[in-house]
């Protein structure tokens, strides 16, 4: 078997299946075990207990799938056209949803394509032990992608590529054949700290280290409890995920939009008004979120996130009334709605004081001499 030629073919087949880049690495992640344990010991995984349960398996692919000798790491770009970054973040009456979640859920799509890649390799080599993964098992996918030459780990912990920035998904195909491995890319972040300084909650606690308990993506997606009060105002109108660290990254300026129509913005998100989304009942939420990654957080968490965003929005009687209609559904939701109502009340009071002050200034101004 000419494994050099096979590796080249695999990369060609991968691109034909819709992956923008394909790399190959060995399974040695021992250099990452100390850092992983330190991250877990610090509690940075929050309530994601499965990370601690699996422990070092994440750094040992052969324990996850015995017989594995190589990992084929793939990248699929997801940046949708007309991403509307600035407009959605600037208008705080609109919901901001992480750009990766505007379209169809990527997990099944990528896994199917990885399975096809495994089948294509098997046609070439005969019996093949392989297994595809897309966020479906305890794997250190970013270190594997880095070793496979797909990019380097940025200070925000995401993989960066000179040509694509970080707007892409990662997937892995574990195989049991001794393919030649690719060279890692060198770190090219330099002294740039834009991602660190732009994080709304200070979740990037050191280069490449994220405290999930502070991360808006974790809070809005993985965490289903009561969000700490001191973090709520910092969440702004971000109701599902956060892209801030990617938005400021210089390497993302020239990133290409996705070639996958499935990742384009769903029609339902053409109107992303907070009030409109907050009015969805559970059956409508489930219907509108069919095929979306957002569906898995459930209706209550969806309303919780929206309640916080409505509290952060400018004062509106419509917002106050909408919030009140959701009271009594659950203690968890009530906690966030009462907070949002208090925020709206304070903004109304502030608005009233400013209005009175403006009126007083105009009255005084009319009584002054023209040359005063």
Automatic annotation (TrEMBL):
Keywords (A to Z) from UniProt: 4Fe-4S, Cobalamin, Cobalt, Cytoplasm, Iron, Iron-sulfur, Metal-binding, Oxidoreductase, Queuosine biosynthesis, tRNA processing
EC id: 1.17.99.6
GO CC annotation: cytoplasm
Binding residue positions for cob(II)alamin: 58, 135, 159, 170, 217, 242-243
PROSITE patterns named among the record's database cross-references: 4FE4S_FER_1, 4FE4S_FER_2
Primary localization: cytoplasm
Gene3D superfamilies: 3.30.70.20
Positions with a binding annotation for [4Fe-4S] cluster 1: 189, 192, 195, 249
Similarity-based family: Belongs to the QueG family.
Protein name in UniProt: Epoxyqueuosine reductase
The organism of origin for this protein: Vibrio rumoiensis 1S-45
UniProt gene name: queG
């Amino acid at each position: 078997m000419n494994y050099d030629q096979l590796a080249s073919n695999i990369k060609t087949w991968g691109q034909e299946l819709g992956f923008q880049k394909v790399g190959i690495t060995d399974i040695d992640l021992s250099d990452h075990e100390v850092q992983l344990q330190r991250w877990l010991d610090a509690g940075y995984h929050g309530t994601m207990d499965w990370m601690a349960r699996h422990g070092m398996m994440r750094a040992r692919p052969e324990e996850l799938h015995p017989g594995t000798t190589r990992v084929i790491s793939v990248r699929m770009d997801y940046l949708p056209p007309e991403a509307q970054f600035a407009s959605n973040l600037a208008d705080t009456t609109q919901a901001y949803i992480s750009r990766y979640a505007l379209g169809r859920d990527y997990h099944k799509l990528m896994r199917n394509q990885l399975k096809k890649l495994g089948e294509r390799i098997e046609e070439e080599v005969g019996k093949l032990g392989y297994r595809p993964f897309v966020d479906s098992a305890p794997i250190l996918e970013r270190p594997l992608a880095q070793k496979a030459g797909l990019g380097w780990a940025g200070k925000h912990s995401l993989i960066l590529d000179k040509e694509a920035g970080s707007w892409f998904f990662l997937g892995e195909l574990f195989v049991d054949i001794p393919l030649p491995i690719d060279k890692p890319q060198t770190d090219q972040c330099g002294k740039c700290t834009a991602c660190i300084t732009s994080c709304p909650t200070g979740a990037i606690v050191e280069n490449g280290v994220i405290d999930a308990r502070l991360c808006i993506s974790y809070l809005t997606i993985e965490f289903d409890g009561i969000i700490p009060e001191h973090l709520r105002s910092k969440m702004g109108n971000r109701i599902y995920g956060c892209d801030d660290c990617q938005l400021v990254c210089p390497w993302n300026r020239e990133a290409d939009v996705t070639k996958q129509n499935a990742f384009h913005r769903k029609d339902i998100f053409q109107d992303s008004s907070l009030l409109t989304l907050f009015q969805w009942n559970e059956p409508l939420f489930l219907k509108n979120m069919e095929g979306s990654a957002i569906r898995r957080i459930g209706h209550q968490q969806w309303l919780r996130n929206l309640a916080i965003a409505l509290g952060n929005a400018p004062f509106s009687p419509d917002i106050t009334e909408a919030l009140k209609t959701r009271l009594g559904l659950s203690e968890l939701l009530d906690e966030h709605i009462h907070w949002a109502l208090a925020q709206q009340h304070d903004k109304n009071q502030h608005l009233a004081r400013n209005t009175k002050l403006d009126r007083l200034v105009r009255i005084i101004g009319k009584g002054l001499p023209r040359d005063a």
